[in-house]
Specification:
- The protein starts with a helix and ends in a 15-residue tail after the last helix.
- The protein has 2 domains: 88 residues, Orthogonal Bundle (Helix Hairpins), CATH 1.10.287.70; 164 residues, no CATH class.
- By secondary structure, it is mostly helical.
């Protein structure tokens, strides 16, 4: 899409340059007014023809040939590239819609539960928690502020609080689901979410290869904590963006997401107030 956009910009620059030079040239050569010269150039480039405004001098006719050769081709190229750009934009919107469906499935099946577990492992979570209590009143500026806070926050992991067997059981049960998501070609459109899935799948693999978590050596525990931290940080960042998407596009899904916010201790799926 970037190549199409660049081509469109180049042809638009040429298009307006031909109009400007053509208008100026007709004013000088044919002694026409600005309006008549501009009208002549536009109808010539658009190939719609003209009636009372036409070149009368030999030089004017030669100049008109120049406008036709350069201008008509440029005009057609602008229309063709603009059409291609709009079609590609529509296709991109469809792909992004499919991608957001995949992201929603991930958080529904795996992500929300993982975020809830990871939050219990973090010793300093109370410092970031207020920034993640998303409400119906949030606007773009609140989402932006939350994203900035998540970038700055150090999502630590207290190894002593991690129930490795339970985490392994949960993730290995979701292993096939994660693998199917990774195989989806739509993910190529969204590198951050692809990185997130890879991080979670890597954590799943690390846990799956360990048959026991009794007497885990300190360095190995810290290694696993690093894998958790990587997944945790990526998941929070993507979750904020996804919540903003739901807020702007699907209010009914956003309502449920707010009521199941894994970071809100008082969240309840049951409505308690009108």
């Amino acid at each position: 899409m970037g190549t199409i956009k660049l081509r469109l910009k180049i042809f638009l620059i040429i298009f307006f340059a031909v109009i400007a030079l053509g208008t100026l040239g007709m004013m000088v050569i044919e002694k026409r007014s600005l309006v008549d010269s501009f009208y002549f150039v536009v109808v010539t480039m658009a190939t719609v023809g003209y009636g009372d405004v036409h070149p009368v001098t030999t030089l004017g006719k030669i100049f008109t040939v120049f406008i036709i050769v350069t201008g008509v081709g440029t005009f057609i190229s602008v229309i063709a590239n603009f059409t291609e750009f709009m079609l590609e934009k529509r296709e991109m919107e469809i792909r992004m819609e499919k991608l957001n469906m995949i992201i929603g499935a991930f958080y529904s099946e795996v992500g929300l539960e993982l975020l809830s577990r990871f939050a219990r492992f973090e010793p300093n979570f109370d410092t970031i928690r207020p920034s993640l209590i998303i409400t119906d009143n949030w606007k773009d500026k609140e989402f932006i502020a939350a994203s900035r806070e998540s970038v700055k926050h150090d999502f630590g992991v207290d190894v002593s609080q991690v129930d490795f067997p339970a985490l392994k059981g949960f993730l290995t049960a979701k292993r096939d689901f994660l693998l199917r998501l990774l195989e989806n070609p739509v993910l190529m459109e969204h590198q951050p979410f692809t990185d997130l899935l890879r991080a979670v799948f890597h954590l799943t693999e690390e846990l799956a290869y360990r048959s026991s978590f009794e007497n885990v050596p300190g360095p190995d525990a810290q290694h696993l904590a690093g894998d958790i931290k990587r997944s945790y940080h990526l998941m929070v960042a993507a979750w904020i963006i996804y919540m903003k998407y739901l807020k702007n596009n699907y209010p009914f899904l956003f309502s449920l997401a707010v009521r199941t916010n894994p970071f809100n201790k008082e969240a309840s799926v049951v409505f308690t107030a009108q």
